[in-house]
Write a structure and sequence with these properties.
By secondary structure, the chain is α/β, with parallel strands linked by helices. The protein folds into 2 domains: 183 residues, Rossmann fold (3-Layer(aba) Sandwich), CATH 3.40.50.300; 68 residues, no CATH class. Helices cover 36% and strands 27% of the residues. It is built from 10 helices and 10 strands. The chain starts with 12 loop residues before the first strand and ends in a 7-residue tail after the last helix. The chain binds adenosine-5'-triphosphate. The site of adenosine-5'-triphosphate (ATP) has 15 residues, from strand 2 and helix 1. Adenosine-5'-triphosphate binds next to strand 2 and helix 1.
């Protein structure tokens, strides 16, 4: 592997995952030997079919594996040069890792604005700071401002995905773990969401690790990609190069491609 093609060398990486293994219930090996890097202000795609281990990898990074009776049984994860081993998810969140779970988890009975405010509590901001943070999120997601008083459960799937991301941004993260943001959404909305992610990355320098089955949209916005199959990295490369490879498409159609 040519180190120069990776997004960042280990020492300068925002996130460095080295050879991790994750086991559920002390028995089910879901991830076996995954290594990846997210550089300062990179967008990195984690690609793979259903059950490949994308969500488990993200949960290992955010510490949420514990909530699923799983543990990282081998390997190392470093965030901003510090090991995350044994660090509680809420502490990791304070340090700057935020995880937007698959499936748009929002508080359905709360309004959009109440949901966003709930994301701000972690930092215990002053009232003034909280209002400023809200305005910042509304500037990124004008649709949320329009529907600020609407119950989240009554908004569209795209708006709920924007809300889940917006609420995560209220923690002022350095690294956003985004799990399948395109799931079940119309192509135009997916484009809108990825365009905002790209702008957040470019203008605020936030790093993103995006798990996706939608390879086209993910590789158009990412700078680098990893391909997972059965809990292992079976390919990686610059997004522009992965995009040009027909075997990536075949891989998703059940082929045996390797990159
Ligand atoms: P999807 O897009 O379907 O979520 P994925 O690539 O994110 O797929 P994971 O959800 O990480 O894949 O699943 C990887 C493996 O771990 C699968 O074999 C899955 O059955 C197993 N797994 C995931 N969650 C659990 C759990 N809570 N308990 C036991 N096994 C699990």
């Amino acid at each position: 592997m040519n180190q120069a093609t990776r997004p960042s060398a280990a020492h300068s990486a925002l996130l460095a995952v080295d050879d991790i293994e994750v086991i559920y219930d002390g028995a089910i090996l879901a991830v076996a030997g995954v290594s990846l890097r997210v550089g300062q202000s990179d967008i990195v795609a984690l690609l793979g079919a259903n059950g490949a281990g994308k969500s488990t990898t993200l949960k290992a990074i955010s510490g949420l594996v514990q909530a699923d009776r799983a543990r990282v049984s081998r390997g190392h994860i470093h965030f901003q040069g510090q090991s995350t081993a044994g660090v509680a998810p809420n502490v990791l969140a304070r340090q700057g890792i935020v995880h937007v779970l698959e499936g748009r988890h929002v508080f359905a009975h709360l309004t959009i604005e109440e949901n966003l405010r709930s994301g701000g509590f972690l930092r215990k901001p002053s009232r003034r700071q909280l209002e400023q943070d809200l305005e910042r999120i509304y500037a990124w997601f004008p649709r949320l401002q329009t529907k600020r008083k609407t119950q989240a459960g009554l908004t569209s799937g795209g708006e709920q995905q924007m809300l889940a991301i917006g609420r995560a941004l209220m923690t002022q993260p350095r690294l956003v773990l985004l799990d399948e943001p395109s799931m079940g959404l119309a192509p135009m909305i997916v484009e809108e969401i990825f365009a905002i992610v790209a702008q957040l990355n470019a203008q605020e320098g936030m790093g993103f690790l995006v798990a996706e089955q939608n390879i086209n949209v993910a590789l158009r916005h990412a700078s680098y990609g990893y391909i997972l199959e059965s809990g292992r990295v079976v390919g990686e490369g610059k997004a522009v190069e992965l995009r040009g490879r027909e075997d990536i498409g075949q891989f998703y159609l059940g082929g045996k491609a390797r990159v």
